[in-house]
């Protein structure tokens, strides 16, 4: 049973419906106790980093997520949920994140190395490029997925399972052991997104059985 | 590389898709869920649902439509029409829509853009602009109320104002070109696209696949929206994308 973290900012319905399409059971909760029963966690999110962190803190969810990860439980952060996994973000002034993956969240500059301006947010379908082998991308061929974001992760190559290019190299799938993140919206990324979610569910099930 | 998006637009009234849908292959051409699935399979990158219900009941029904569509659709969709408040936005987004589109309400009370953007994030807030060329103004004037009421706004001023208030995307409809099928308004699209930092969706005037190429290459649009040519099967999303690919436009 996948626990979807509700801190008032995620698009929970589309994530839970995405899981439903894959035949996975899930529940939505803002209660750390309830969520601790989940076999895997999804941390969705749209909105601002600072607001999200303060809402997580208010409900004691920040500590819960840190304990859950330390206990070996799988966590998948999606979009802003992925960004929250990192140390800090420069969105609206520096704000601390969950520090589950080293790195920080920075804004697209809107002007590239050769001085050409580009649009922010990075919005639309962009192609993944698989980097380090990861169970999340196992057996899949890289395809387009749907991104909507103005900030991206500045992190070590070691944690980048897939990236895309939008003026700069943008980490698209990040992984550090049992902590995973997708900058795009897998639940809105057609077949490719569904396959990635399915792989995440397999990971969770694998852990459940072992 | 970021691809150019093709977006079919569906008008919804009292929970049903209306206005010129000709799909013999579908069991029920008015069912939003069935049509959404059809366009998804065709390779649409996104969908827009425009709620044209006049009554309160019709608007309530729209929330059910959004839930049903979100339950079956694995691509993003935007809902516009009659969204006047933060609580309207909340209901539509919580029901599963990815973005809301604001038009008249944003012109009447521009703070609505700030409120929505601050709360849900700029990526959720699309500002739809209906514009018509105005000789006196020497530019395009913004209209509200479904194109019935002229405003004081010049289109670029309003687009920039909307973006500065937190619009994450501009859905730009040329009233001059809408329904004519002679192509998108390239001059208008280019002017707005180059004036704002956020993506611009060109709308109004699509008649064939070549028009999409023009909107992207000459109009600098990031996405292009069409209704009737897809509904009437004059062309299909699949055909348009195959043509664009052949012309070197990057599509999914």
Automatic annotation (TrEMBL), chain A:
Active site per database record: 79 (nucleophile), 185, 187
All residue ranges annotated as the Glutamine amidotransferase domain in the record: 5-199
Protein name: Imidazole glycerol phosphate synthase subunit HisH
Record's catalysed reaction(s): L-glutamine + H2O = L-glutamate + NH4(+); 5-[(5-phospho-1-deoxy-D-ribulos-1-ylimino)methylamino]-1-(5-phospho-beta-D-ribosyl)imidazole-4-carboxamide + L-glutamine = D-erythro-1-(imidazol-4-yl)glycerol 3-phosphate + 5-amino-1-(5-phospho-beta-D-ribosyl)imidazole-4-carboxamide + L-glutamate + H(+)
Keyword Iron assigned: no
Species: Peribacillus muralis
Biological process terms in GO annotation: L-histidine biosynthetic process
Gene encoding the protein: hisH
Annotated localization: Cytoplasm
Keywords of this entry: Amino-acid biosynthesis, Cytoplasm, Glutamine amidotransferase, Histidine biosynthesis, Hydrolase, Lyase, Transferase
TrEMBL record, chain B:
EC code(s) of this entry: 4.3.2.10
UniProt subcellular location: Cytoplasm
Domain of life: Bacteria
Reaction equation(s) it catalyzes: 5-[(5-phospho-1-deoxy-D-ribulos-1-ylimino)methylamino]-1-(5-phospho-beta-D-ribosyl)imidazole-4-carboxamide + L-glutamine = D-erythro-1-(imidazol-4-yl)glycerol 3-phosphate + 5-amino-1-(5-phospho-beta-D-ribosyl)imidazole-4-carboxamide + L-glutamate + H(+)
Subunit annotation: Heterodimer of HisH and HisF.
Protein family according to the UniProt entry: Belongs to the HisA/HisF family.
The name this protein goes by in its record: Imidazole glycerol phosphate synthase subunit HisF
